[in-house]
C-alpha cells in the first residue's frame, strides 16, 4: 500500500538545481523533493508521497493523521516502530487502540 505521510521539514537546501528538504516522519528522516512546494519553510509540515512534498499541512492535522495511521496499524506495516513514537507524540499509541 502507498501512503502520503505528513512530515516536518528540518532542513532545506538546493542539490543539483533541485530544492530538497530533510523531513522528519516521527523519527524516520528522509530526503524529500520540494519542487511542487518551493515556498515550504523549515518547521512546516507537508504531505509527502514517494519522496515528493505535495501539500502543506498544519501541525495539528499532521499529528492527527499520524495518530490515525498509528491506530490503524498502517505506519507499523510501512515504516516500523519509529512511527509509534509519532503516534505517541500525537496523544495516542497504536498499541492502545488494538
Features:
98 residues; SH3 type barrels; 2 domains; 5-stranded antiparallel sheet; 5 strands; elongated; iron ion binding; Hydrogenase_HupF/HypC; Hydrogenase maturation protein HypC; Hydgase_assmbl_chp_CS
SSE blueprint:
Elements: E1 5-15, E2 18-25, E3 28-33, E4 45-49, E5 52-57, H1 59-72, H2 74-79, H3 82-89
Antiparallel strand pairs: 1-2, 1-4, 2-3, 4-5
Word description of this protein:
It is a single chain. The protein is of the alpha+beta class. It has 2 domains: 5-57, SH3 type barrels, CATH 2.30.30; 60-89, no CATH class. 29% of the residues lie in helices and 37% in strands. It has 3 helices and 5 strands. Strands 3-2-1-4-5 form a 5-stranded antiparallel β-sheet. α1 (59-72) packs across α3 (82-89). The chain is elongated. The two termini are 20 Å apart. Mean pLDDT is 80; it is low at 92-98. This is Hydrogenase maturation protein HypC. GO terms for molecular function: carbon dioxide binding; iron ion binding. Belongs to the HupF/HypC family. InterPro entries: Hydgase_assmbl_chp_CS (IPR019812), Hydrogenase_HupF/HypC (IPR001109). One of its GO terms (biological process) is protein maturation.
Q: Distance N terminus to C terminus? A: 20 Å
Rg result: 13 Å
* Quaternary structure type: single chain
The strands making up the biggest β-sheet line up spatially as: 3-2-1-4-5
Number of domains: 2
Number of helices: 3
Beta-strand fraction estimate: 35-45%
Ranges where pLDDT stays below 50 over 5 or more residues in a row are 92-98
The CATH topology of the largest domain is SH3 type barrels
Protein name: Hydrogenase maturation protein HypC
Family: Belongs to the HupF/HypC family.
GO molecular function, one term: carbon dioxide binding
Amino acid at each position: 500500500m502507498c501512503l502520503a505521510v505528513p512530515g516536518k521539514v528540518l532542513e532545506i537546501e538546493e542539490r543539483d538545481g533541485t530544492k530538497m528538504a530533510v523531513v522528519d516522519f516521527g523519527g524516520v528522516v528522509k530526503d524529500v523533493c520540494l519542487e511542487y512546494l518551493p515556498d515550504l519553510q523549515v518547521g512546516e509540515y507537508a504531505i509527502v508521497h514517494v519522496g515528493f512534498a505535495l501539500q502543506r499541512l498544519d501541525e495539528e492535522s499532521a499529528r492527527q493523521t499520524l495518530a490515525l495511521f498509528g491506530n490503524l496499524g498502517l505506519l507499523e506495516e510501512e515504516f516500523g516502530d519509529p512511527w509509534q513514537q509519532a503516534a505517541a507524540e500525537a496523544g495516542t499509541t497504536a498499541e492502545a487502540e488494538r
